[in-house]
Amino acid sequence: MELHTSELLRGTLLYVPPNITKILSKPAPSKILQGRHIYFPMKKLLIVLLFGVAPCLLLAQKHDYIWIAGRQNFPNITTHGGMVIDFKQKPVSVYYNYRNTNMFVCNASICDTAGNLIAYSNGCEIGGADDQIIENGEEINPGYLHQLRCVQYDDGYGSGIQSAVFLPAPQDDSVYYLFHKQIRTFSNNTLSGFTEKLLYSVVNQRFNKGLGKVTAKNVEIIKDTLSFGELITVKHSNGKDWWIITPRRNNNAFYILKFTKDGIVDTFTQKIGITASIPGEGYGQVVFSPDGTKLYRTNPFNPIMVYDFDRETGVFTKFDTIHYDYGNQLSIGEVGCAISPNGRFLYLGARFKLFQLDLQAPDISASQTLVAEWDGFAAPVATLFQQLQLAPDCKIYGLAGGDTRYFHVIHNPDAPGLACNVEQHGLVLPTPCGASMPSFPNFRLGPPENPGLPCTSTVGTIGGPVSPLPALSVFPNPATTYVKLVVNQALEQGANWYLFDLHGRLVRSAPLDTAQAGIEISLSGLPAGAYFWSVDGKAGAVFLRGKVLVL
What we know:
The protein is mainly β.
């Protein structure tokens, strides 16, 4: 059953008159249709009472503070295997951690509200905080692909990025749901198959002295031909419940599920927009804006698809597209996407290039800016731009192309153009990542009147001012063939930039003009190693300094 402009399914067939779109498009409708009943929201008085304590509650939602990655785990071999990326540490801490679970593409993890790891999954099994499979956590997604990828190859399930996600059960801090997609295929190439089911499994922490037990497993929610990956979630407008959304394959329809303390209580479909290209399936990414009002979907053979979303009703209210230019690239492949913390900038990880688009520009397509281009670095796999994920530290991390030992870092994603400060292969990982990084929703999203912040670093409110920047940005770092200098704040007139080697010899210099958007300094001919830079004013006094590692 499907929801068009005039049709809505909530459990039983229900005809909704055409003028219902006027109700659904309001930011805060006074009533919504739920099956055969009319539901009236909580009184405004209760909202006012909760308003003062909501920010503290939202900041405590650290469910995304531990990222799990790494494959080819062998005891006593630390050059390959598991790793932990810990955002409780500032700066982020990355370290080797052996586990008998290989993460390959499919990746999901969840922490408690304090940021302590509860569970993770590679689509084959569910592991726990002690890096052992949780009781009854084996044989997730049973079937041919499980036998091939999880048993025969002892690897990850290979169901694609955004094919699994953990959510805390609403109003129960001890129960966590893993929503996961099951693939039907008859070959090792999972992209030759398709998703045939959406399932869930439940981890209850009340068992085994807090280590948990899987109390429900592979419970079928949807049996249909679904898109590869593209499983996305967003908070309900009440700030407690969740919407779970995934597209159908070769169709412009979406399944939309409402997840509450009572489980999945509502499932319906809606047709809107265009049909995503089948050849590009599994090579794109879908992400909500930090405030949950817009969904952005990428596919290498389509323009960016934009859907306005009503968090109270769970209905898409508008569709649009943003056209962008791939540029002259060797090939077309993955197109990952992420939104800056303040909601203003959309980033596209388009294989050899990383683009930024200003979502507040009068012409968004015309605002497309190249903020980074592959620097040729490979170790041994080329560190290209693919999947992107906004992290709890308000930086955006990018999967650097396949099974590499690096993530790219966008240090100031709220800043326009080159000032966003892209550091290619900036986060060094202790082992190959397994072409794998998790995908998280905005756990800290609150109700519309108090949406909160998507991350805890110093950022503006959603849609508000950008983050403070250093007076001078010098990137990429490490660098290979060049560095760029971007002046973010007014400098003393006549300021100059100098680069010195470890012996104090001047190797590069450039005058700094505060009107310039960026200055590129060639590093050609410089041997690999550490270099130090400084900025001197007209009187010769040093007032800025830093270092650059040349590879």
